[in-house]
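ingest -> fold -> write
write: protein_1
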Amino acid sequence: MGPIEILVHNGQHARAHPLRLLLDTECEDLARVLETNLVGPFRLTRIIAGAMALHGSGVVVHLSSDAAIAAYPRWGGYGVSKAALDHLNRSWAAELPQVRFFSVDPGEMDTRCTRRRLLTQIAPSWRRQKDVARRIARMIAGCERIESGARVVWPP
């Protein structure tokens, strides 16, 4: 099968529905969000990136969010996890120069989860999952133009 050359972290977990204010968030709920959005990607990258580094190449992509940069009421735990994921991305890039790392903020996504959480209709500007996947595939194919550790915001 050969070595793993590409790793994309696309998991996300925002926990409670409806989302709660931080003061109303249980510690266990925050821990679950961090486990999915930060610790899980750390564990998998730790296993895969070492082999990539030994092989001398590889690409690791983390799916981020605008909530990593901007604070939104009721999205605190999710935003904290994505901000930490962006920093983890930069840290991996600093420590493993043989592997290219970048995170992508695709913007608002047209998903059932987003519709349910925001309790709104999808705006025409929201990205469809298959379009985002295609765009990320193009980014990976041309990743030498992206600085390792960078946070790429759609559109770049």
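write: protein_2
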Amino acid sequence: MATAASTTIAKAFRVLELFREHAFLTVSQCESALGIPRATAHRLLVSLREAGALEQSPGGHYTLSVSLFELGVLAPERRRLGDRCGSEVEALAHRTGYRAHLGVRRGLGVLYLETAHGAHAQAQGVRTRVGHRGPFHATAMGKVLLAFGPESLLDEVSAEGLRPYTSRTVTSREELERDLERVRRDAWAYAPEQYVAGISAIAVPLRDSEERVHAAISVAGDSRSIARDRTRLIEAARQTAARIERGRGATFRGRSDELNPLVVSL
């Protein structure tokens, strides 16, 4: 049976999880999203602010604190991959002009460890950020991950339901399996407007010294531009992956639950 203290901590983490979808929170938003009394929502937000996890604006909005960010970047996986790959992701974004990402698998979602934007990324409407999680079936990254992953992973994703994010999202297992076969054949994935309307992405895998896929690089932007530049972008992403892989080994070694194909993208 959970103690009062552990219950409070669990509620506090539920509050922090809301920042995956919100840049800032109000007491009312917290109350509504979590289905808790307003007084409880206010108490949790104030407690997190006093603990240094949140900051509060003069208008009463709460945001994640810099201190929490500083702790987050110390996470082992972020340091293993991000410290080594961050500059390459930045270079890819600068070279292509698009949004570039580095991501890994987390449970049944894709976790963005690094993001960087090129000269035209903001105008193209790509709004990804570090810490964002995306779905497998609707992203270029997810398709790569599923293609090289165990059948059990695809079973789990299918059992959760293939949610239609846009009119172009793949929502049947049969169609998804056909996509995955193409990814296995070509070693890159394409997600045309399947997660966000008007935005498309390509993704390529990152492999360790035993040729297992542990992470991936992606490039995202407005659909017309991505379609026009697709061949160039695939090659640029592959070159970036190759440079990172030349330093592979300790970079990609982690826990056993990280030994699955991983790729990230919109």
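write: annotation protein_2
The CA atoms of residues 164 and 171 lie 6 Å apart.
The chain is about 45% helix and 20% strand.
pipeline exit 0
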